[in-house]
From TrEMBL:
GO terms for molecular function: isomerase activity. This is 2-oxo-tetronate isomerase. It comes from the Bacteria. Keywords: Isomerase. It is an enzyme of class 5 (isomerase). The lineage of its organism: Bacteria, Pseudomonadati, Pseudomonadota, Betaproteobacteria, Burkholderiales. Its EC number is 5.3.1.35. Belongs to the hyi family.
Amino acid sequence: MLRFAANLSMMYVEHDFLDRFAAAAKDGFPGVEFLFPYDYQPEEIKSRLDANGLTQALFNAPPGDWAAGERGIASLPGREDEFKRSIETALKYASVIGNKTLHVMAGLIKPEQDRARHRAVYMDNLSYAAHQAESAGITVVIEPINTRNIPGFFLNRQDDAQAICAEIGAENLKVQFDCYHCQIVEGDVAVKLKRDMAGIGHIQIAGVPERHEPDVGELNYPYLFKLIDTLGYQGWIGCEYNPAGATSAGLGWLKAIAAQGLTRLKA
């Protein structure tokens, strides 16, 4: 049985952020995810989750200066102390909000910068994050992101992400498999899901190439959903897409999946 989480950073933007929880629950989502909770007190978010019977699936660790264009600091030399503080903050939030998966963004690299040095910093920081999260029962995930949406992002390929996790060897370090990013960078999504499922800690979806609802675009999501279910995936599927119109009006794809018995909507 597949579990879908509405991404409240991208969906239901017709509502104020704290009102998006109720909107997602009304449409039958059992869980939610979003980029960052840090503009709010964790208790405030937890109260919205509880009031609407929702589970928090995932959020991101602090990414550096997001407004200035930073997209994570895990691979950035010289930012190691800041990274450790960011993990401390994220784990404090997770302890209140209750999610068991934390996304750590790699950050950006320029062509002239030393990739080997960035990778070494990335490995050390991820080892630290996984160790800190282990006692809380939290899985840290890393996500390959396409360079069309985020030019210069350090991590782009599924095989590279899986190799990093294998090299570090922490049981609670896995890959966040975003079907949208995977299709843009390398394609062959179904084969990679089959190959890598044991190392996948979170899945995200969006239509390609416009990043709208998953029933629009070049990816055959009905096939992929059946495959993911057949492969025995037990985690959440985050709906990280930009609705083409009003969010609720575009959920025909979710109702169709529920009608097939692949997921269960909240009453």
